[in-house]
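Notes from the 1:1 (GR / supervisor)

We went over the backlog. Supervisor wanted to see one worked example end to end before approving the batch request, so GR pasted a single chain during the call. The sequence is below; no edits were made to it. Supervisor asked that the structure be written out right there so they could see what the output format looks like.
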Amino acid sequence: MKTVKDIMTKDCATVTTKDNVYEIAVKMKQFDTGFIPVVENNKLIGVVTDRDIVIRGLAEKREGSAKVELVMTTDIQCIEPSTSMEEAAKLMAQHQVRRLPVCDNGNFVGVVSIGDLAVNNNSDEAAGRALSSISVNQNPSGLG
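Structure output shown during the call:
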């Protein structure tokens, strides 16, 4: 059985608490991602999504120089590299997220996404169920 370690993205863009909102947005553009882990001394302390920047940054009229801590999400689910793909899909559905940071003994080592699960033949069904659950629960009206 394949695990998260087999399919996760290992070379992820990250930021630290020394970065600001503008620098995060530039990194998101540069790496074509909407999800940036916040890492200090190899430890995951939070994540910033493009939605975080909009909701906690722009909508609250924060400047681009605003600190990472003002927009980052700290209540995050992290999984071990040995987690099965099926379990990762279940956690994504349960927590209504499309990406999960992967930590090995507390050290950030990568990210697994719903896309990683979907492109793997053994997990198409699990990824489909997770994405369906996430999409329905995040957007019950079917709009946007």
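Supervisor's comment: The two ends are 36 Å apart (CA to CA).
Batch request approved.
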